[in-house]
Amino acid sequence: MDGLRELTPLVLGALVRRYGHFDLAEDAVQEALLAAATQWPGEGVPDNPRGWLITVASRRLTDLLRQEEARRRREATVAALEEPLVPDEVPDEDDTLELLALCCHPSLTETSQVALTLRAVGGLSTAEIAHAFLVPETTMAQRISRAKQRVRGAAFTAPEDIGPVLGVLYLIFTEGHTASSGDRVSRADLTSEAIRLTRALHGRLPEDGEVTGLLALMLLAEARRVARTRVDGALVPLAEQNRLLWDRSLIAEGTALITQSLQDNVIGPYQVQAAIAAVHAEAPGTEDTDWPQIAVLYGLLADLTDNPMITLNRAVAVAMVDGARAGLELLAPLDEDPRIARHHRLSAVRGHLLEQAGEHEAALARYRRAAELTESEPERRYLDEQVARLTGEPTARSRPDR
Length: 402
Known about the structure:
With 402 residues, the chain is mainly alpha-helical. The chain is 66% helix and 1% strand. The chain contains 19 helices and two strands. The protein has helices at residues 2-19, 22-43, 49-72, 75-79, 96-103, 110-121, 126-132, 137-150, 163-177, 188-204, 209-222, 248-264, 269-282, 291-304, 308-322, 324-331, 344-356, 360-373, 377-391, and strands at residues 181-182, 375-376. Strands 1-2 form a two-stranded parallel ribbon. It starts with a helix and ends in an 11-residue tail after the last helix.
């Protein structure tokens, strides 16, 4: 039931605010969700589904904590649990922001933050999260369990700095938008979940420019999803996409959000990225794109954040304005940056610019190197196609001996 996933952070947030014990509260909420999925189809959805879930989860948490008390003799905790929450006492607060902050606690690794957010706030099962990141379910279960133990006792309050929360939501979206491994270009389950959570956060912080910027960026990128793959699943780069397939409703919403945000707020990195995406979205074709404006925006973005991926994209934009050599000059320092020196996208972009500069042999070497480094099958196929195009040889997937 789709509505249960949207209720997950509201129910879990209410329990953690009242009782603490994040790890046990999350287990109790999962049991309440299971009860709802089992009972509601036959008995009907209650008038107050959130209150129903909170009541059931609260009672289950009471049982769990009493079991803990039997082992650890926590008299104070049990005394506070004599009267579990009932529907009429359900608090009006939306605790999504506080719950996101807890899942993005600085004591957790980036991977654990993402996994815990998808589990506790997104309502995804451990199996679903494991599948998304191509690891065994047992491995993901251990990772989530350790994360819950680590944040036990952490303060359940709205964060002073929303940056880490936005960073985790951005990571979830980017992994879905361009899967780092596997046989698919994108993961719609992850992009839709990131958008849903960011919408919820925007509902709590509608005046925050970077929250608005991140939501706009996600919507504008998601608008292109259908056009990014061919029928056979192969990757279609931006310049070759059929723009008639772009989702104009998402583009309109994202453009309106970023236009208003840039007028009302101090500009931050997510807003600038959304502005770049809006410029692309407004162009009927690649040849109509305002590349000088995009190059300027990437320059501004480079001043706001130290991110080598931004430099990659900036190099492409600068090459469109000032020529391939100018773009290649921007890439040179990245060879000494350990964050990206061995990343396949650096080799791929350099190959693209070398080809534009007429250095086909050097471009071939870079395309081949990128194909060796990537763990994404669609990206490998696309890079093999570039090699075949330049050499006149068949691609690996079309050779008779394969």
